[in-house]
Amino acid sequence: MEIIRPGMFGTSYSADSKRRLFDFLNHQILTKGKIPDFLFIGDSITEYWDLELYFQNAGFIVNRGIGGDISSIILKRFDADALQLKPKNIIYLAGCNDLMATHYDYWWKCPGREEKEAIEELLDNTEAIIKKCGGINLYICSVLPSALCVPYDAEKFNDNILTVNKALKKLCEKYSVSYIDYHSALCGPDKKTVMDNITYDGIHPNPEGYEIMAGVLKKAIGKING
Asked: Is 39 part of a structural domain of the chain?
């Protein structure tokens, strides 16, 4: 029997879920003429970080993280959610979801993206963001270590994270941009897998994990202490 399969009619991006909210918030900031001291942008690891709890004396902090976001979409929304607000400092953390896309899709039963292609695209998008930030203090953060559960290939995922972080560090050196190494501070003894008891699910930091990250950032950026 031949079955009609029209395929997908469009692509749904996680960033769409926050577009209206961020447009409204950005408009209010611009109308009030308020300059963010620190703007954080990235995926769920940024979105779920209650920044004011950890940086109480850091001035005006703006969070533009979106759960599930990928580097290509962050690049597309970067002008709107970061540059037009003219922040003094931008903290950029992304890449986990780009790498997750390389895993086999057990729901649709299809292979993930080719690893080399996904990594190259992630690095190209990061470089494009760096080039957009002339005159703004930009901090590129490492991808965090993980402890994925079956059916995901945790070892391969963490190996890809190491590859990406090494390349991100070189990219930062090339453009004289600050590199924030959360990865080393969050790793267990194997220096590859996230240490025990600092995440909710092997990916997202819990309060202890965010406390470590805050310490790393405070050490790197003295003016965010608080």
From this structure: yes
- Could you tell me the pTM of the whole model? 0.93
User: Could you give the CA distance from residue 98 to residue 152 in angstroms, rounded to a whole number?
Assistant: 15
* 26 belongs to a structural domain: no
Specify burial of residue 165 (Cβ count, 10 A radius: 0-12, 13-18, 19+). Answer: buried
Regions of the chain with pLDDT less than 70:
1-11, 108, 150, 225-226
Tell me which long-range contacts 20-29 makes (C-beta under 8 A, separation of at least 24): 22/64, 22/77, 22/80, 22/81, 23/80, 26/80, 26/81, 26/84, 26/85, 29/62, 29/85
Q: What are the beta bridge partners of residue 64? A: 41
Closest to 117 in 3D by CA, of 100, 128, 132, 102: 102
- Specify the CATH number for the domain of residue 92: 3.40.50.1110
pLDDT for res 117:
97
Task: Provide the number of structural domains found in the chain.
Answer: 1
pLDDT at 108: 67
Q: State which H helix or E strand residue 138 sits in.
A: strand 137-141
8 A C-beta contact, residue 107 and residue 151: no
Token couple for 217: 């950032």
User: Domain of 98?
Assistant: 35-224
